[in-house]
Design brief:
The chain has a single domain (about 50-305), classed as TolB, C-terminal domain (Neuraminidase, 6 Propeller). About 15% of the residues lie in helices and about 40% in strands. The chain is built from four helices and 21 strands. A hairpin with a 5-residue loop joins β12 and β13. The chain is globular. The termini are far apart.
């Protein structure tokens, strides 16, 4: 009678199996880059109360739908981004030369608006109707403009301009602005050296601006500054009450609750959310009413993210 030997009695099989397991583990580690971030994401899900999770945007559930699409007519300096719900279009600001571009949700060029007399425009946010707020980084100014449907140029001399002059002069000034329609306030971020998050009241008062009130001790500041090396852009979502905070250097988009709690984040690195390559220099972020997320990156790239299943 033949006796079949157990496979492990063959001495060469054990080293082969061990080598295979090591190679498999290395492969998984290469795929699961930023393991500490992934573990932290799991911890966030377990530690965030169910009620907050139910109302949150949930950036961890997004995947890229359009990756690194070059924007037509743009060679460089793509910066701030906003979504106009009434026009169902995006508005992108360029800071060299200073221009506004109206884009379709797919990144097609619809209109070019020259910004005459502007210096270093880094951010734009739609604030209802035909009004937009532009942020001038170097001068630390906020400019409220009116943009008619067919307008192709805007003169700064004809717009309301407000200079705050907070720790300015080093070209590390205002990088993002976000409108909160619940109180008509404007969130404003200073890029770094140092990073700051403010909220300004009174800028949008009609027919003439009221007394300006600047808040610097915001609850959202703790979450906005927690894991970021700089602050590149903002978006406020009235449906959830969350503030989206974009960091170029950290390659991170964070969702912060009104109480300052970090609720979710979207890594802008390779192998996250379906990205084949890292986002090179994220500069602007916008979210539409359906939950579609738009990002722009230097020099001229558009990214669109949608929730899994959308």
């Amino acid at each position: 009678m033949l006796t079949l030997a157990h496979p492990w009695t063959k001495p060469w099989l054990k080293p082969l199996a061990l080598t295979s397991l090591i190679l498999l583990a290395v492969q998984q580690l290469l795929l699961w880059t930023d393991l500490d971030d992934r573990l932290y994401l799991v911890w966030l899900k377990f530690s965030t109360p169910a009620e907050q999770q139910a109302h949150a945007i949930g950036l961890d559930g997004y995947r890229v739908a359009i990756e690194a699409r070059p924007l037509p007519g743009v060679e460089d300096n793509a910066s701030g981004l906003t979504w106009n719900r009434e026009r169902q279009s995006l508005f992108l600001v360029l800071n060299g030369p200073n221009r506004l571009l109206e884009l379709s949700p797919q990144g097609e060029l619809l209109r070019r608006i020259e910004l005459l007399g502007f210096d270093d425009v880094e951010s734009v946010d739609w604030v209802g109707g035909n009004r937009y707020v532009l942020a001038d980084e170097r001068q630390q100014s906020l400019i409220l403009i009116e943009l008619a449907d067919a307008a192709t140029q805007v003169e700064r001399s004809q717009a309301r301009s407000f200079t705050l002059g907070l720790e300015g002069g080093n070209n590390k000034g205002f990088e993002g602005v976000a409108w909160d329609p619940t109180d008509d306030g404007l969130f404003v971020v200073k890029e770094r050296d140092p990073m700051r998050l403010y909220k300004l009241q009174g800028l949008l008062a009609q027919p003439t601006p009221g007394q300006l009130e600047l808040q610097s001790d915001l609850p959202q500041a703790q979450g906005a500054l927690a894991f970021n090396d700089d602050l590149a852009g903002l978006h406020y979502d009235p449906a959830s009450g969350s503030l989206l905070v974009l960091s170029d250097e950290s390659r991170l988009l964070s969702e912060v609750s009104p109480q300052g709690r970090l609720l979710s984040f979207l890594e802008l690195s390779r192998n996250w959310h379906g990205l084949k390559q890292a986002v090179p220099q994220a500069e602007g972020v916008a979210l539409d009413e359906r939950g579609t997320l738009y990002l722009v990156s230097e020099p001229n790239l558009l990214y669109v993210f949608r929730r899994d299943g959308d």
